[in-house]
Amino acid sequence: MFIGHNAIGFAAKKAAPRASLGALMGAAMLLDLIWPVMLLTGLEHVRIHHGDTRFSPLTFTDYPWTHSLAMAAAWSVGAAILYWIVSRYGRGAIVVALCVFSHWALDWITHRPDLPLYPGGPKLGLGLWNNPIATIGVESFLFAVGVLLYRDTTAPRDRIGSIGMWAFIVVLAAMYIATASGAPPPNERLLAWIALTAWVMPIWAWWFDRHREIEAT
User: Fold this and answer.
1) What pairing do the DSSP bridges indicate for beta strands 154-156 and 212-214?
2) How much is the pLDDT for 217?
3) Dihedral (CA of 104, 191, 37, 91) sign
4) Non-local CB neighbours of 200 within 8 Å, separated by 6+ positions
5) Half-sphere exposure of 7 (CA within 13 A, CB side)
6) CA pair distance 135, 127, nearest whole angstrom
7) Nearest one of 116, 113, 44, 38 to 73, comparing CA atoms
8) How far apart, in whole angstroms, are the C-alpha atoms of residue 155 and residue 157?
9) Residues 41-95 pLDDT 10s
10) Do residues 158 and 20 touch, judged by C-beta distance below 8 A?
11) If you average pLDDT over residues 175-179, what whole number do you get?
12) 5, 28 Cβ separation under 8 angstroms
């Protein structure tokens, strides 16, 4: 799943309004933020293979340290502890943990059976990616709901808070369209370097979120 993860980051602001959207977005994306680092260091592997699923040309050969159920749980706990140490916001720490773990849950719905329960363990996946129309419909719906929840939870204090948010949304949508309809990179190493650019998104979210305030209820 792609923008489905961003949807969780947006929606989580309603559950933990004092948390920065940057932290929530980074938590929801965390497994995919670490994944290209693992690829470049050779700890995990992927192949570009057209037809692996009808939606994605990527064959996830092995990614036990980022995308196994056990490690997703471990990353969730680690992220929550780190967030609590920095912020002392207990509710935010719980929501951060849930955001991190949601990544595995959403991937379980979309991926074919390539998500291990634990490193070296059996693999799971419901395979929604084999139905591109359903995939796009589900992700688009989740994204719209997440954006609306964030918009209704916060209000811009200035133009950065408004324009920065909508520019972020447009860029995410454009990236999703390009991913769904464009050709993949020519090799796996370039794919990893491109994937590293996703680190910009939590920083961008942190930036415009600082220019928004929680709506009074």
Assistant:
1) antiparallel
2) 56
3) negative
4) none
5) 18
6) 10
7) 116
8) 6
9) 999 999 998 777 888 889 999 999 999 999 999 999 999 999 999 999 999 999 9
10) no
11) 89
12) yes
Residue 60, token pair as written in the block: 């996830």
Instruction: Supply the mean pLDDT for the chain.
Output: 95
One-letter amino acid of 9: G
Give the position of tokens 């935010």: 92
Cross-strand partners of 115 = 124
Q: Are 17 and 196 in contact (CB under 8 A)?
A: no
For residue 37, the model assigns a pLDDT of 97
Summarize the confidence of residues 17-23 as an average pLDDT.
98
Cα separation of 118 and 72, whole Å? 9
Is 0.90 surpassed by the pTM of this model?
A: yes
Question: What CA–CA distances, in Å, run from 27 to 21, 47, 162, 165?
Answer: 10, 26, 23, 18
HEC per residue, 65-99:
HHHCHHHHHHHHHHHHHHHHHHHCCHHHHHHHHHH
In what helix (H) or strand (E) does residue 153 lie, and over which residues does it extend?
helix 132-153
